[in-house]
Specification:
This protein has helices spanning 2-22, 63-69, 74-84, 156-162, 168-176, 389-408; strands at 51-56, 98-103, 113-116, 122-127, 133-138, 142-151, 191-201, 204-218, 221-227, 237-238, 258-261, 264-268, 275-278, 281-284, 290-292, 297-304, 310-315, 320-330, 339-340, 345-349, 359-366, 369-371. It is an alpha+beta fold. Strands 11, 14, 15, 16, 17, 18, 19, 20, 21 and 22 form a ten-stranded antiparallel beta sheet that branches. Strands 1-2-3-4-5 form a five-stranded antiparallel beta sheet. A five-stranded antiparallel beta sheet has the order 6-7-8-9-10, with helices on both faces.
């Protein structure tokens, strides 16, 4: 039946093709119903023929205890571990994740299959009989374009949920505006308008694909950001002038004569003589040398830091924070909560606190953890390529119109 059907279809296509070449109108072809084989279950087996036992990974449970507890022998469990290869890392079994075991009958002796649900989209299937096998299966994901208009009243998180938008958009917005908006300093009345693509699986959100266009509004000022990939592996978000939404850091916060001490977790302290972590870089410089903020940010604190002496701490965005220690004095009028610009003087080199001589102890934290300032990755901040500026000029108003159409439920 299938061979005859395929042959008929081939001849019909050939006839149509020939008529197109000769310029003749193709004759109508009588359709024949072709038998299609049943699509296999997405899991790779038919669960309806088996008895299911379900549960979740318990705290402290590992791969071996889970599978032997389900009825698999120690040898077969070991074989499955060997065959996981790059499909599944048995060390990453997560407590609370769901699993389903499929048995031939209700005696629940040895399972034929065990399915571990890694996420809403991905599951790992373990075939436990015959030829032991491990493979991953994925549910279909749909990309849906959405829009949100959120005005801050309590918090961005609560207000985003109240606006029926995915909270995951907040994380994406934080990345886009990390260098221009202080997300810890949002206030009532601040507003975000955003056009984004969301990944949906079986009607549930599984994350934001990307933000296409966004606007941050405060005090009648609008800061737009549009997605455009130049294909060079660099910046992908730009303002309406084609300027990068990312900003670069200064290479150093002052003009210095030398680096007197580097970043180390095992440095012998020059005063105490004991081995202590030194999660910063010491720049030797004369007392009174101006010290600058390496980037735009908000002053977190200005004051005495114990062994660090006079200290200024600055949060640059949701990722990076810096500190400037042993200052002889602060910039006039500097106070916590104040916004500073890149290159703005915030203090002067000194030897306050525990110090053997004038120097600046400069420190950087990334996501709350100290990093070596000399290895700080400063993002490129070049504007869009000149040949791509016309694209930005047309893309910004187009995306803005799209956003307005979504929010007003009107066609573009």
């Amino acid at each position: 039946m299938q061979i005859r059907s395929i042959a008929c279809i081939f001849l019909a296509v050939l006839a149509v093709s020939c008529n197109w070449f000769t310029g003749k109108r193709p004759e109508p072809v009588e359709e024949e119903v072709v038998e299609v084989a049943e699509v296999p279950n997405p899991l790779g087996f038919n669960p309806d023929t088996l008895v299911t036992r379900s549960g979740v990974v318990r705290s402290g449970e590992n791969f071996t205890t889970l599978f032997t507890g389900l009825g698999l022998s120690s040898q077969d469990t070991y074989t499955l571990v060997q065959r996981c290869d790059t499909v599944f890392d048995v060390r990453l079994l997560v407590a609370g994740k769901a699993w389903d075991a499929y048995y031939p009958d209700s005696t629940f002796t040895v399972p034929h299959y065990v399915v571990y649900h890694n996420s809403q989209v991905k599951s790992t299937v373990f075939r436990c009989t015959d030829s032991l096998q491990v493979y991953a299966v994925y549910k279909p994901v749909e990309i849906v374009e959405k829009a949100a208009d959120v005005t801050i009243t309590t918090s961005l998180w609560n207000d985003m949920i109240a606006a029926d938008a995915s909270p995951a958009v907040i994380l994406e917005l934080a990345d886009v505006y990390a260098w221009t908006v202080d997300f810890f300093g949002l206030r009532a009345g601040d507003r975000f308008r955003v056009l984004y693509k969301e990944r949906m699986c079986e009607g549930e959100s599984v994350g934001v694909d990307r933000i296409e266009y966004a606007e941050f509004l405060r005090d009648n000022a609008v800061l737009p950001a549009v997605y455009f990939d130049q294909g060079d592996g660099g910046n992908r978000y730009w303002n309406e002038k084609g300027e990068s939404m990312q900003k670069a850091f200064l290479k150093a916060p002052l003009k210095f004569t030398r680096i007197s001490s580097g970043f180390s977790y095992h440095r012998v302290h020059p005063v105490h003589g004991t081995v202590r972590p030194h999660t910063g870089v010491d720049y030797a410089a004369p007392t009174g040398t101006p010290v600058m903020s390496i980037g735009d940010g908000t002053v977190l604190s200005v004051g005495w830091g114990g062994g660090g002496g006079n200290t200024v701490k600055i949060r640059h965005n949701s990722i990076y924070t810096t500190a400037y220690l042993h200052l002889s004095k602060y910039a006039k009028g500097l106070k916590a909560g104040q916004r500073v610009r890149q290159g703005e003087v915030i203090g002067y080199v000194g030897a306050t606190g525990t110090a053997t001589g004038p120097h600046l102890d400069f420190r950087v934290w990334k996501n709350g953890s100290p990093i070596n300032p000399l290895k700080l990755e400063s993002p490129p901040s070049e504007p869009v390529k000149p040949e791509n500026q016309p694209v930005i000029d047309s893309l910004v108003p187009y995306r803005k119109a799209q956003l307005n159409a979504f929010l007003t439920d009107k066609p573009l």
